[in-house]
DNA sequence: GTTTTATTGTCAATAAAATTGACAAATATC
DNA sequence: GATATTTGTCAATTTTATTGACAATAAAAC
């Protein structure tokens, strides 16, 4: 159905292009895991980011997630209400505090991740260590490079 | 900031996880290219899919894009109004016609792609042929596998 | 060949995700 | 110290996508 791209840049472009439908299929899958957790996609993303960064201010989470600060703030508030994240005072800034996961928030995001990990393990088998390593590295580099400068 | 995942499944999971922020950074970038073209993200996606499939029914586009048929139909209608896609009668189905790009639609999506390709070329330089090939293949396999069954 | 089931198109209502605008408070820069 | 930038907060809006409902067509079952 789809012809394979011929040049290296074309192939990279095609691979990147695939990100949108891929995210769509992932989201559809992930939805099931979120069901019963009372989490929205946004909340899940912020929990994930907070887990990854361990402790972060709202602007740091905003950078990480590439979203608008107002949206992140709204989600953080929801998570605060649910006591899944907590504030830690920031000596360097009076208003801009740190956020970290509460025990229950940490348990929740870990549970969600674990369920998904189980599925991913199936796919990991299909690829070699090197392939997965390349994939991971390229995702990191692309994300990094594209989020910086013009 | 982020510690590298240790096991193969973890690394694959982390790579996949990165899809969301990556798409976000890509979208931010892509926005600029869409500016002045009067295209929405949905329209762009459908044009892209129609280019890739050359000729496709609405259900085929729906499968490809992993969206709901109603949404695809709405976007197709918009593109028909703008004369960027055209209908071709389908001998196998009275109602479900084929869609293909009009010359102007084809020119438009190719122009958008070209602008983006220019940026991607920079990144392609950074990676080897094998790395790009692996990346492309993994994106294909993941997208394929995740969109089917279970 | 007829009945039943699934697919497809269409219209409408709704929801989710994210952006934008505006303003005040805190911080950083000069 | 004055000015510019960052950050938090409240509100309105937009974009994207889903869901529900119903009729027309096609496919499957019988």
Spans of chain A of at least 5 consecutive residues whose pLDDT stays below 50 are: none
CATH topology of the domain at 39-117 in chain A: Arc Repressor Mutant, subunit A
The assigned CATH architecture of the domain at 39-117 in chain A is: Orthogonal Bundle
Structural class of chain A comes to mainly alpha
Strand content of chain A: 5-15%
Number of beta strands of chain A:
3
User: Which chains make the largest contact?
Assistant: A-B, 58 and 58 residues
Q: Figure out the total of helices of chain A.
A: 7
What's the assembly state of these chains? homodimer
The average pLDDT value of chain A, as a whole number, equals 89
Bin the helical content of chain A: 55-70%
How would a crystallographer describe the biggest sheet of chain A? 3 strands, antiparallel
Widest β-sheet, arrangement of strands of chain A: 1-3-2
Which superfamily, in CATH terms, is the homologous superfamily of the domain at 39-117 in chain A?
A: Winged helix-like DNA-binding domain superfamily/Winged helix DNA-binding domain
According to CATH, what is the class of the domain at 39-117 in chain A? Mainly Alpha
Name the helix and strand elements of chain A from N-terminus to C-terminus, one letter apiece. HHHEHHEEHH
Distance between the first and last residues' Cα of chain A:
34 Å
Shape of chain A: globular
């Amino acid at each position: 159905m789809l012809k394979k791209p011929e040049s290296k840049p074309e192939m990279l472009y095609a691979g990147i292009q695939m990100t949108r439908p891929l995210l769509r299929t992932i989201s559809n899958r992930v939805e099931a895991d979120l069901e019963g957790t009372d989490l929205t996609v946004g909340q899940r993303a912020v929990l994930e980011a907070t887990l990854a960064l361990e402790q972060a201010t709202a602007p740091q989470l905003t950078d990480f997630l590439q979203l608008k600060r107002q949206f992140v703030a709204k989600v953080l508030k929801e998570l605060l209400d649910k006591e899944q994240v907590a504030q830690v005072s920031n000596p360097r800034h009076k208003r801009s505090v740190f956020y970290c996961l509460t025990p229950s928030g940490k348990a929740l995001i870990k549970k969600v991740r674990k369920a998904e990990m189980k599925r991913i393990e199936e796919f990991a088998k299909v690829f070699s260590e090197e392939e997965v390593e390349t994939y991971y590295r390229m995702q990191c580099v692309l994300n990094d490079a594209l989020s910086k400068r013009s």
